[in-house]
UniProtKB/TrEMBL annotation:
Name the UniProt record assigns to this protein: peptidylprolyl isomerase
Reactions catalysed, as given in the entry: [protein]-peptidylproline (omega=180) = [protein]-peptidylproline (omega=0)
Any one GO MF annotation of this record: peptidyl-prolyl cis-trans isomerase activity
UniProt KW keywords: Isomerase, Rotamase
Protein EC: 5.2.1.8
PANTHER family cross-referenced by the UniProt entry: PEPTIDYL-PROLYL CIS-TRANS ISOMERASE FKBP19, CHLOROPLASTIC (PTHR47717:SF1)
Gene encoding the protein: LOC100272703
Organism: Zea mays (Maize)
Family annotation (Pfam families): FKBP_C
Amino acid sequence: MMLLAKLGAPSVPGKRRVEEDAISCRIETYHGCVMDRRKLLLVPAISMAIASFQYTFVKGIAKAEFADMPALRGKDYGKTKMRYPDYTETESGLQYKDYFHGKIQDLRVGDGPSPKKGETVVVDWDGYTIGYYGRIFEARNKTKGGSFEGGDKDFFKFKVGSGQVIPAFEEAISGMAPGGVRRIIVPPDLGYPDNDYNKLGPKPTTFSGQRALDFVLRNQGLIDKTLLFDIELLKIIPNQ
């Protein structure tokens, strides 16, 4: 009967036509009909999921903080600033962690009072362009001064509160004690002013280090200028 209807049986108007269409759907294309209905049922759910994702995505962008990239300044998108759950973040945006030999379980926070404004500190440090391939621009624990032993001749020194170093370095040192080692994540606004390492310390001591840092700082493209420093506070020299 179904075959005859398809080959030219007279059409049945109204309710009968609807019933025949329903029967045809159930008998001949049952699985197809079921799939079509399932697809139809999925449409509202998919639409809701997409809408929810779009809302969450846009909401996340609105709240995101982006790393400084000259090519994207003034825009509401870019590479988000790095956040590390095992680091302490200060109000300024500096992230730091005290450690010893890279082992979190063996913290090395130093011993004694922290340096005061006007005192001179002696530090050893290393630096990395963590936002751009993690290139090292200064190595810590490298040979200092040939046969010179037991002193601070070739270590980096500066007076606390004098404005001689980048804000992140100053903030990190002010909370350390002698013998302590601190790792800091430095966003661009706490780093080198005007992207020039010659204006404030610490400055790389080798030509290759200066070139690596300068490439990142002066690049006007899509380069994240976030830096990483390891700082060891060796000594505090009291005011004279």
